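Researcher: Here's the sequence for the chain we discussed earlier.
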Amino acid sequence: MENIVKQLKITNKDLKEAEIEGLLYLITTQQNLDSNKLIQLSGLPKETLKAFKSSFGNYLEDSTEKLALNDEGRKLLGGLELHPYSWSILKLSDEDLVTKLTEIRTEHNLNPVREYDQWFATIESSIAKAKMLEAKGLVEGKNIALMGDDDLVSIVLVLMGAKFNKVTVFDIDKNLLQTIQTIADKLEESDPNLRGVSKRVFTKEYDARNDFEINDLETYDVALTDPPYTRTGVALFLNRCVQLVKSHKDFSGSYIFLNYGNSFKSPEKTQKVQEVIGEFNLVIEDKIDKFVRYHGAESIGSASSLYVLKTTPTTSSKTDYLESRIYTYEDTKEEKFPFVDHYVFKLNEVPAKVIESQIALQKAVGEFCKLHKLKVVKTDIERFKPAGFTVTVILSNSNLLVHTWPEYKAVHIDLITCSPIHNKEKMLQSLQNLFSTQKVELKKIE
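Model: Thanks. This is the structure I predict for it:
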């Protein structure tokens, strides 16, 4: 077994050996396996699995979609003890709920609306979302908000007999909202144990680009969202969730469950999402990879990760998320930005020999650029009366701006670059040495 796994590793460098063994296990154990099913089971992107299939093609039956071993493949893998791979570290399901939700999905036959970035989760994933709420103690007696619910998590909570105080679904899809209300009414009529439940399930037609009604703000204990997978979409929907949940001055916190999916070959997108989360001063209490599986969305492995976010006393919403294009089909320009590093430095107690001397100041700025390989194109310096300088440095990849206040022994530096900064972890130390002060504050803007 070790030999075939290592051979496949040579042409599948992005996969771990354990993942390769896991794929071989699925091919040998799953009946009627096709490419889409393999994507759902593994959570790996379509292109990654296409490359794997090509590298193992000599051992598979000739088929564009089906994945079945040929005679050579059966001979190769037949005597091996292959081990399954844990594609997700947590699975929550319930066979009875699977049956009930499947019947509901079949009866109502909803279709995903691509203009709203809808990809329906599998039945098991819809149930897992609700079960995770329960596992975190966020159901009984709680107010639950769903920013979009094409996965029918609200209905799963009803089917569970959950003793929530209220569930509110905010969605732009009017047809979906009507269907959810109809299902809740039918369930109440058919099961005496669910008497009154339809009066605790609310639906509101809502476009996230608009403000909430005042009585919706800070009302909920937890909010769930599976937003459009653009940076602006994630930021906007997360901002709305922050507005919906209750604020806390202590550390008990409210919760936001955020689902986000992207190919493991695009880690920069994950980093951007984590930056957005940090902007709201939210804590990532848990992150569960490939927690939700979808029908479709093969480019991201038909899967998304669950971020369990907890509010802190400093969590607050923003007022500057006004971008109108939030859905993937709109091809937002922001998603095409290759790289931006933006830092702000505040220096205090800078000695007069540096801050009051044009020569010393220019030397310090020039040395900083050399140390961190910031290629200088042009430098301008302006002297102000009665004191103070502004140094503008045009870089080959953006700019550096320095302003001084001699009367306060203070220097402010703003650095923006569109290429990675050399030894950026040592920038603070460089400024301490060059400006002869230990009092340097650093803030990463982007």
